[in-house]
Amino acid sequence: MQDLIDRFKAGETRALARLISMLENEDPQHEEILKQLFYRTGQAYVVGFTGSPGAGKSSLVDQVIKHLRKEGQTVGVIAVDPTSPFTGGALLGDRIRMQEHALDKGVFIRSMGTRGSLGGLAKTTKDVVKAMDAFGFNWVIIETVGVGQAELDIMHVADTTVVVLTPGAGDAIQTIKAGIMEIADVFAVNKCDLPGADKVAAEVEIMLDQQCDQVGWRPPVKLVSSLTGQGIADLVAAIKTHRQHLEDNSLLSLKRRERIRSEALEIVNYKWQQKILKQINIPGRLNDQLERVMNKEIDPYTAADFILDYVVSGPTGK
Amino acid sequence: MQDLIDRFKAGETRALARLISMLENEDPQHEEILKQLFYRTGQAYVVGFTGSPGAGKSSLVDQVIKHLRKEGQTVGVIAVDPTSPFTGGALLGDRIRMQEHALDKGVFIRSMGTRGSLGGLAKTTKDVVKAMDAFGFNWVIIETVGVGQAELDIMHVADTTVVVLTPGAGDAIQTIKAGIMEIADVFAVNKCDLPGADKVAAEVEIMLDQQCDQVGWRPPVKLVSSLTGQGIADLVAAIKTHRQHLEDNSLLSLKRRERIRSEALEIVNYKWQQKILKQINIPGRLNDQLERVMNKEIDPYTAADFILDYVVSGPTGK
């Protein structure tokens, strides 16, 4: 494995792809990999794109990639596609996209499905961001369907979050419902050539007027067209302005330190889960407690106290 | 508080409302309340209705309530509305609904917002289901926007899950993406008077044909209209058939026992979280470890091992 990491450090794209697969599959060595990558992270600027299905996020991200590539910037992209077991795997569109950039070593696109566990998606995505960051890309872009808690969790790793809207019917209102307006640093109203784009932009501005907790940064609303490329330069400029804002106010390092802290705590919880699952799955007193709850002989709170005490203090008590 | 629980046990609706508020607000006594309610739970049949915003879930649930009331059944309803801080509180529509049923003691409707923490929504909703179940309603109906992990978590408490679709453009495809097709026991194609309803139903049937892991139950697809009431009797019959299927195969008690088990484990985790948060928030060695991770002096995995060991084995080691 050290050989693989060495090739990764030497900038070999295939080593990156291989390491990402190992992270995705929770390879037994994934912890060792992340330990080694940790010290190389924190260089890339991470931008999240989120919005309802059909908002044109993929083609918008493609335009942003092209723009950044013209500036000589390298870009890693993670397309999170919570595909259901019904359809399985990544969508055709993503495969086409990947081919398009296949010859450009400055772009690396990775599609991720959920493969069953939605709960694990956020963790895996964060790990893949770390791999791309450690690999040395200047930018890491995450693209998700902004519909749920897993997606909101993913967005916590972004330094700048772009919420993509369209002039579709009721789109803005649905976005509010899904709870993703709060995480927007920049709004992009895509398909701005369609009628109603100005109206959506105006609606967002009104909502921003009503929002009281804006401290120093009011999310700009940019009209863009991922079809024609209109407004893309403006959108990238807005992202950079937000980055500058974070850096000027020491918010970027604060945000990142806070993120590292909460990730360390998440790892503690993950290890705790593993520990307790191991003990629960062997026959014995803990299992008996759960049996008794299921038989309604004791309530789950009393059982939980017992189990916690048992695992923390050991079978004999403190 | 015992007085309140006694009035609850005597069937006083105001006591139910009061207890639910205490559960929602994580009142210091909420654990004691749930301990006492636990032995009274497991009587109600729990049905979940989920689907994208605008699918007409609320009015469909209203029709189902009316149908069940005609049969003399009592119904508790929990409308989960993940309203964002932008809009705040429950929507006007829900308040109107509640007034409509205000004089009927056999119906109790409760709207829930997220009040900040989406992560806590599933837990609170489950607690409210328990309160309604313990109160003695024959049926408990949960209504959620089926868009995310929190909503999927909520649906785990339902004995039967109804996924509501509409002939809207791309609706079926979006539903697959959101990952809620897998949890459907019954499909309801609402607004069946609109063109395209048959097409949606056919699409769902095709997807069901492709799904391989159907063990003994193939979700029926029902065309309904929450506007005219068309198909509602049929829908309720399908829900009852699913219930019969679960009971005939001992799946209902198995499902419920499994649910109690995983809830007990969730409580263990919750208590663990409280324990570790308490220790993390006081200055000392655990906090120092996190500081060192944030300064990139050690990696988060090494720190996590230390913290877990410290909390489990105590400051001096085992």
What does this molecule look like?
Two copies of one chain form a homodimer. With 318 residues, the first copy, chain A, is of the alpha/beta class. Chain A folds into three domains: 1-39, no CATH class; 42-249, P-loop containing nucleotide triphosphate hydrolases (Rossmann fold), CATH 3.40.50; 264-313, no CATH class. Chain A is 53% helix and 12% strand. Chain A is built from 13 helices and seven strands. Chain A has a seven-stranded parallel beta sheet, with helices on both faces. In chain A, helix 4 packs across helix 10 and helix 12 (285-294) packs antiparallel against helix 13. The longest helix of chain A is centred in the last third of the chain and has 30 residues, at 251-280. Chain A is globular and about 65 Å long. Residues 83-91 of chain A have low confidence and may be disordered. The interface between A and B is large, with 68 and 68 residues.
Question: Which secondary structure elements does this structure contain, and how are they paired or packed?
Answer:
Two copies of one chain form a homodimer.
Chain A lengths: L1 H8 L3 H12 L5 H9 L6 E7 L5 H14 L4 E6 L11 H9 L6 E6 L8 H15 L3 E7 L3 H7 L4 E6 L5 H8 L7 E4 L7 H14 L10 E3 L8 H17 L2 H30 L4 H10 L5 H14 L5
Parallel strand pairs in A: 1-4, 1-5, 2-3, 2-4, 5-6, 6-7
